[in-house]
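May I ask you to review the protein record following this short note?
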Amino acid sequence: MKTLYYSHPDFLLHETGRGHPECADRLIGIDKALDQPMFANLIRQTPPMGTEQQIGLIHPVEHIQRIRDAIPTQGLHHLDPDTVLSPGSEKAAFLAVGAVCDAVDQVLTDKADNAFCAVRPPGHHAEPKRAMGFCLFNNIAIAAEYARQHYHLARAAIVDFDVHHGNGTQAAFYHQPQVLYASSHEMPHYPGTGHPMETGVGNIINVPLAAGDTGAEFRKKYESIILPALYNFKPDLLLISAGFDAHKDDPLASIRLMEDDYRWVTQALMEIAGRYCKGRIISVLEGGYGLKALATSVTVHVKTLMGG
């Protein structure tokens, strides 16, 4: 498999303040983990700067301008208690969008089989008109809509295994039958959305997990609900909101997944992509706040994407 890895030092310029879980050390640890000899064949990509037009596929211009207007010239500015801006946040956020859209270009023109985008700030909580939950722009939603509009895809599927429900992604596609959004997440937990009765136009699949659930419950629900939904949908492109905060050692949640559970779910999604969309997968980093668990989980995820 030809796998791309998107990273950039300017992602570290998005500062969130002492003690904030969504910190630059997350990407430093990932980059170190993916510098091991086993990743010698991983193709390292420098992302281009994203554009307002790309962000505008999901967010109105007023939202983009609100973010820009709130960027401080020094220090930090809180949009809410969780969501922080620093002088480097705009560049990091635009680079994140550039990374996911370039990954779409590379994968859909058969220059690569799949891609992992280690970006920050994350995106799946960002609603079309609201930044929240550490997120400014919804990277995965932008990538899906960019793929649909620029490559005329009939169906795009997003699978979100972050421990928090991706309320922003759900909101972006709630009335869009051409995009399937399937999420497994701890409930009740932030942001309070993701009930199974939230089904959109039949394109939203929410699968709550309970505090203390292990890989056994996680796999059972994927096998019984999410994977069959994907087989039925037959996507032309599969995108993954790859949050690793359902790991047992993550400090912000109470699900008890292990690295092998991330290997298993990645392999299961690759099998579906291989059947319906020529193996084409775009994986985008979301959460994961235990630094060691994040690095080891990403290692397994990326190695599996590479065919290992």
User: Anything to note?
Assistant: The first helix runs from residue 25 to 33. The longest strand covers residues 179-186.
